[in-house]
Amino acid sequence: MTAIAFRALACALTASLLASCATVSPESRLRAGLVEAGLSPRMAGCMAERMVDRLSLAQLRRLQSLASLRKSHMGEMSVDRFLYKVRALEDPEIFLVTSKAAINCAL
């Protein structure tokens, strides 16, 4: 392998590694959405860690719709009010996973 070919390979590998680091993980997207919905950053981080592996991508997308709630309300949303909104999604699994995460993180 020539020095030029080796250098090109190294640059391509570095670029692909940087690109993979630039993508946002589902957990960080969920955490950001929970904060945007009005939960405290500490509660959102704790809940996201517990929820991300227990919900499908489709269910996580449904939860994203709750992020628009805060735009009409200023300040932090209480956990019970947030769970009320989650229940309105009418998905028992989302509600179960979210409420368990909220209980565990509140303790």
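Above is the first protein from milestone M3; the second protein from the same milestone is given next.
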Amino acid sequence: MLETILLIISVLIIALVLLQGSKASDAGQLFSGSNERLFGTVKERGLELVVTRLTALLGFLFMLVSLILFLK
């Protein structure tokens, strides 16, 4: 039962990570003089925020289920 839950969580994490926008283009702004990303004035909104939070929640659940399976 827990193995199936772990598999479903794993697939969902993979899908959510693929849905997230690339942060690589934002890294170049650090050296171009733009302080917006450096000091966090640009915030995630809408679907991007939901996907980020859902990824963090599923990551936590993945670790929790993995730990329970390990101790079992």
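Note on the second protein: The radius of gyration is 16 Å.
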